[in-house]
Amino acid sequence: MKNRVAIIGAGIAGLSAGVYLQRQGYQTEIYEMNEAPGGQCTAWKRGRFTFDGCIHWLAGIAPGDPMHTLWEELGVLENTQFHTEPVYMKFYRGGQTLSVYGHIDELRKEMLRVSPEDKKEIERFYKAAKKASHIEILQIEQIGKKSFFQKWRELTKTIIPIATLYPWFSVTAKKYSLKYKNPLLQDMMRGLFTKETSMLFNLILLSWTNRNSVGYPLGGSLEFIRRIEEKYKALGGKVYYGVGVKQANLEGGRIVSLALANGKITEADHFVSSTDAHFILSKLLGGKYPQPGFENAFHNFPMFQPILLISLGLSQKIESFGSLSGIQIAFTEPVKFKENVIDRALVHSLGFDPSLSPKGKQVLSITVETYFSLWENLYLSNPATYKLEKERLAREIISRLEKDFFPGLAGMVEKMDVASPITWTHYTGVYRGAHEGFQPSPTALQNAHLLKHKIEGIENFYMAGQWLTPGGGLPAAALSGRSVAALIGRSSVIDDAPSSS
Ligand SMILES: Cc1cc2nc3c(=O)[nH]c(=O)nc-3n(C[C@H](O)[C@H](O)[C@H](O)COP(=O)(O)OP(=O)(O)OC[C@H]3O[C@@H](n4cnc5c(N)ncnc54)[C@H](O)[C@@H]3O)c2cc1C
To answer: Residue of the nearest CA to atom 41 in ligand 1?
Structure first.
């Protein structure tokens, strides 16, 4: 049996592929360019504070949810406590707040309270959200032979309900928001996920909150990923940290080895890359194996708009915002940074996680959307100016928040760290800082099936990771690892048929 698998990248997708392959009896090795696991699911220390660069919310935590099985299999649920809130997110503009309650009935009441003049559209939205509340978009058995029960479940829980909600599928959040007269409701529709997101995706997001299936795992990203790494190692998997992979060496339509950045090579029977899709196609494979699905995607799907993440260690605890994913604050006057007009910020208060700060203090994070090319040009022209500009912009955003929402904020800041899109690309290789890959726009969702795990033209090479599922995120990346393991399992049986018969 051909049973050695080399995996590139120890982010969640690479580790997940490793766990499922080890469970199937393969010998796997992961090569990770960084010194620690996690990829984008990470956090970093600044003094006595831990600044989390990823998890705000994890979907699929409710028992009975198909994704719950995945988290259980990956070992992240054992002894994990989840912080949950009845409100998923809040929106603030000019002294008024809208709370996006997780429960759809409560949300309807709140929307009507904020904007009775939008009653007709609110009722239409509520009806659709109710209908969507049972859809399972992330099926655990994505690939491989499905039983009759699984096929029936897919038909009734996913395909038919999606078909009946087609008008919601085909409209973006940005366009749909214009149906509302009230600016806060417009903010909500645009800000639930991303502006180009299909409204059906937003309805499905609300179906997770409605089922109490989203939460924040206490301990944050580092603890979360450490548990998966532990599971992988307990199953006999090996990870080599600080070992980047430069190139794949091919012979007769198969990869025979990987050239490592330390000058060595490694051989295996199967290869999986969970790194950035652009890197795989253009560098690892030298642009020799264009994949039609990805060619189309990189031309036609919108990628996630990169972010500037300002992490603050505060000298004191502040009153909780009472929402899981923070509060989006619309500025009365935008902050301008070249052509980047920043008119809002997502503020996340992490006082509920004692592991992130010393006693009596807390972490607060501020996220704003920005453009990759602005930071790239700045960094390439002068790294010192780039650093100064990051900090200057962060201070300007903090002072805008002080004016509009949070008096006294600047005075509480004990530590500050600013991560730009360049930071993410530098540490994880993610293409143009698109931290969740492709946005789940109507076009992306309609063509998502063309993004294949198996690389066409190469017999033994597979892709895992966020780029395979528009919308990205931890569940999709983890699921891709499971799917790749199922594919390899199947192809090995086919490869080995003559010798084993
Ligand atoms: C600020 C922020 C907030 C987020 N919030 C959430 C959230 O609340 N909930 C959620 O579900 N998702 C969230 N996400 C998204 C989530 O973090 C990602 O979708 C997910 O971690 C992607 O995992 P991945 O394994 O596909 O890719 P990655 O994490 O990018 O992993 C790829 C790995 O490959 C390694 N690598 C790259 N090139 C090489 C090479 N040449 N050789 C060896 N190794 C290499 C990288 O170092 C990395 O470890 C957030 C992301 C960010 C940035």
So the answer is: 245
CA of 310 from ligand 1 middle (Å) equals 18
Q: Would the pLDDT of 172 be above 90?
A: yes
Question: Residues 76-97: pLDDT tens digits?
Answer: 998 899 999 999 999 999 999 9
* Contact 41 CB / ligand 1 (< 6 Å): yes
* 442 in contact with ligand 1, CB cutoff 6 A: no
Ligand 1 centre distance from Cα of residue 14 (Å): 10
Please tell me the distance between residue 10's alpha carbon and the centre of ligand 1 in angstroms. 9
Residue where the block lists tokens 């002068």: 382
Cα of 90 from ligand 1 centre, angstroms: 26
Distance, in Å, from the CA atom of 258 to the CA atom of 265, rounded to the nearest integer, reads 5
State pLDDT tens for residues 233-282: 999 999 999 999 999 999 999 999 999 999 999 999 999 999 999 999 99
CB of 118 within 8 A of CB of 182? yes
> What is the mean predicted confidence (pLDDT) over 214-238?
97
> Using 50, 70 and 90 to split pLDDT, how confident is the model at 64?
confident
Confidence of residue 157 (pLDDT cuts 50, 70, 90): low
H-only helix segments in 133-276 = 148-154, 160-164, 166-169, 173-177, 183-191, 199-210, 220-234
13 lines ligand 1 (CB under 6 A): yes
Q: Compute the distance from residue 41 Cα to the ligand 1 centre, in Å.
A: 5
- % residues pLDDT > 70 (the chain): 92
Q: Is the CB of 309 under 6 A from ligand 1?
A: yes
What domains can you pick out in the chain, each with its CATH number? Answer: 4-43+218-302+436-500 (3.50.50.60), 105-210 (no CATH), 307-419 (no CATH)
Say if ligand 1 is within 6 A of residue 351 CB: no
Phi, psi of 194 (to 5 degrees): -120, 165
Is 37 near ligand 1, meaning CB less than 6 Å away? no
Residue reference for tokens 């509340």: 133
d(CA 32, CA 470): 24
